[in-house]
Fold this sequence. Notes:
The structure holds 2 protein chains of 2 kinds. Chain A is mostly helical.
Amino acid sequence: MWTTNPGSGVALPPHWGWYVILYFFLGGLAGGLMVIAGGLELVGDERDTDAIRIAHRLTFPLIIACAFLLIIDLGTPIRFWHMVFKSERFPELVIKPWSPISLGSWILTLYGGVAFVNYFFADRVRGRRAWMILEGLAGFGLAGYTGVLVAGTSNAVWHNARLMGALFLLSGVSTAYALLMLLLPATSSTQRKLNDGDFWAVVLEALVLLIMLIGLGSLGRVFWSGWFGVVFWLGVVGLGLLAPLARHFTALNPRRAAMCVLAGGLLLRFVIVMSPQFPRVALWHL
Amino acid sequence: MAKGFYTDTTVCIGCKACQVACHQWNELPAADGGRTELSGDSYDNTQTLSAVNWRHVKFIEQITEDRASDGFLQGSRWLMMSDVCKHCVRAGCLEVCPTGAIIRTEFDTVFIQQDVCNGCRACISACPFGVVDIGHDGKAHKCTLCYDRLQQGREPACAQACPTESIRFGEVTDLMQLAEQRVAQLKAENVDAYVYGKEEILGGLNSFYLLVDKPEVYGLPSKPELPSHNVDTAFELSGVAAAAVAVTGLVAFRKGRMDEMARAEGND
Lengths: 286, 268
């Protein structure tokens, strides 16, 4: 039998473009930096102070950049405050913990507060156990919720990717390790700790990505076939995962490996966000 | 009492009066300034529901090898269906909306408050039916089930304009009874009809359909899920990943510290 196309009846693309891709990348980076700084405070020594200071100097500007990207991505940016306040009954708050985007607004707010204190008043909170727990919650929350936001849609591929939160979280932590390695002097004793931490973060990320793709079955083709497949295999897998792992077994410079992790992290967000929306959303869509 | 639509696709003639009436009443502009290209898909150039098309008539031509028609809706046939927002009892768009712009009205319909929406677009990817869309004004739009007309005791523009009563408006429970009667009548005529939108689909659709083929044939999902269906699991798995990367990180930091101390002792 010959039949016509009844037209789309499935979820429409949310028109996420580069603002969202960059936000997912920088948010993961910011979340990872806060977590690593907290970990170094917990079990590191005085020689790690430089790494902690760099992380704290970065998190606040990064969260400002994230907030800026999110606001300009809104259809009506001037109403950004509607995310947390009931516009018709100000100053009542809007809290919908079952909605990843609403929960994410509160995670961003919490993270912003923690990053602000770490930036301006680090000496007053350093070493306090409760503060470290808060840092961990805010950092992991920010790095991970963006992936859950993707899974909390009705798009068939995203919806079935239950490991997306875990993947984004691990990628966020591994890119944060990589950034710190690039910013610290090569002679710093913290380099080795970061290098080891990053190795395991990348191993976990590769494992989660593999399990997620197996779980998605044929739905996952959108990520790993066609032109997006080229970016996925060369950029995400080759550059972002295999090259950094190979540095432990070959003579690859750790700083070059760190650059590969950062590039892979950005390309991962690009493939995940763009491939299910293309061609309805153009590759250069902001 | 819940108000809604019952759309009997077997009496739809594809006249698009509903689309026109919707455009007229709601003052919806033409898509792309009226420069829409021909789709090549039957009489359907609208293609999809959107910010400016809150009704969309679908045309499904099912033509057999011999092109012969063998009685009412048997053999070669044209299926036509006027699609619209389903005003779900458990609505994904309403669930995810972070601003509270999407509300349930006193008529049990789902409505987007334009003065609250900030265009975050979460509702667009949340709707499993592809109903909600972002407009050029930077806000989300979809069928309001003519909320303004309902408040004045009038029926929605599309239902009033429908010449064949394919689209019926009323109390959902009354409409469901009508639909069941129609299903029984069609089954007696050997037409495999059923109601799409009972409780098993997102708690029920206040705008439901009588169909004679699988939902996918009409571009409808057979088992739609709420967008939040996997959210708890996704958060739990993120928690596991966080614990794993925290442990490996702390071990790496601790090991690094121990190695440094051992090296320092060795030097001493």
